[in-house]
Amino acid sequence: MNDKKNYGFTTTILHNDRRKGIEHGSLHKPVHTSVAFGYADARQLASVFQGKEPGFRYGRQGNPTVSALEDKVNQMEQGVGTLCFATGMGAIGAVFQALLRAGDHVVSSSFLFGNTNSLWQTTMAQGVAVSFVDATSVDAVAAAITEQTRIVFVETIANPRTQIADLARIGELCRERGILYIVDNTMTTPYLFLPKAVGAGLVVNALTKSIAGHGMALGGSLTDTGAYDWTKFPNIYENYKKAAAKQWGLAQIRAKGLRDFGASLAPEAAHHIAVGAETLALRMERTCANALALARLLEADERVAAVYYPGLASHPQHKLAGELFRSYGSLLSFELKDGIDCFDFLNRLQLAIPASNLGDTRTLIIPVAHTIFYEMGAERRASMGIAESLIRVSVGIEDTDDLLADFASALNAS
Ligand SMILES: *Cc1c(COP(=O)(O)O)cnc(C)c1O
């Protein structure tokens, strides 16, 4: 295949494995389950271990099937390198494990995936200070930055309330201040948005969600976009400064985050994710169109008190979303009017399934305060704008009319 041609998103992902040579004519990257790797002789083994020759050492640090997926994700994010992890949380956890030390400070969006919020609480107990700010405002981020700030961490579209961080201006601020900017791109995926375009140094993707899309494998990734100058980062150990500076970050994350932390992606899971990733663009087109249609139906219904979806003109960052993203995403949330029991409503739905995943081919729906945001308590929920009656919908690829009819009849019976 012609490597120089500027192919589109789906063509590139479909054919990416072939760019590095086909094994036994297999059009899909084979699933290599071997944990250990042998070489021609003991000297070559030593040379691979010392990084003098390319090659795999032990399954925890890398594997050919996982590496093929890393290449694919890297192509999607247009990065300089990508590492995969067992889960999205494994990827985020590895950042903190590998890059932060006691006394450091992080500025984080307060609109966060619930487990990332919980991870920050752990980090704080271990001596890293975290300031939670309203990331829709670059001024709030700027005001929180101190001399000790090493990382600014935001999500693109926050789950579940869909607030959108002021992504470009925060990127500009981080660049001026030499701070590592990390963007969790899970809700948008590289099909809707490239964090590299707003100056993110590291990009997180929970591959479990839309990139795999089928809800049958867990996985996560970190992509270095090449935008961050690692010579400005004070926490890189001498060991990882041997190669060019643009490789320092991932070299340290691979060793400290992946090798020592051990949240490694299994080759079987990498295979399942790679199969799903081929149809990412097609699924996103459908789920985004379904989500917009459903958001409009809900907003027009008198039994619905509020709808949060960036594609609606009523969304506070509607214009910004249109400028930043190819489309408005497949996640929305809404509140029913007082007096309508949200559990009864959920139980009336025939197609939408009560479950906690998102980015699945099926429409999944969940009462947020009673499940995924239950542990953090009412006060923190209120600070994140999560009403006790909030319902989150991860919109799937069902036929649009079927989906709308399911919600309309559940509302009509309310
Ligand atoms: C799900 C999710 C994660 C974590 O991914 P897992 O694979 O479930 O560990 C991180 N960030 C966001 C925004 C998510 O939606």
Automatic annotation (TrEMBL):
Keywords: Pyridoxal phosphate, Transferase. Coiled coil: none annotated. Its cofactor is pyridoxal 5'-phosphate. InterPro entries: Cys/Met-Metab_PyrdxlP-dep_enz (IPR000277), OAc-hSer/O-AcSer_sulfhydrylase (IPR006235), PyrdxlP-dep_Trfase (IPR015424), PyrdxlP-dep_Trfase_major (IPR015421), PyrdxlP-dep_Trfase_small (IPR015422). One of its GO terms (molecular function) is O-acetylhomoserine aminocarboxypropyltransferase activity. Gene3D superfamilies: Aspartate Aminotransferase, domain 1, Type I PLP-dependent aspartate aminotransferase-like (Major domain). One of its GO terms (cellular component) is cytoplasm. GO terms for biological process: cysteine biosynthetic process from serine; L-homocysteine biosynthetic process; transsulfuration. It holds the Pfam family Cys_Met_Meta_PP. The modification N6-(pyridoxal phosphate)lysine is found at residue 209. SUPFAM superfamilies: PLP-dependent transferases. Belongs to the trans-sulfuration enzymes family. NCBIfam families: PRK05939.1 (NF004609). This is Cystathionine gamma-synthase family protein. It comes from Duganella fentianensis.
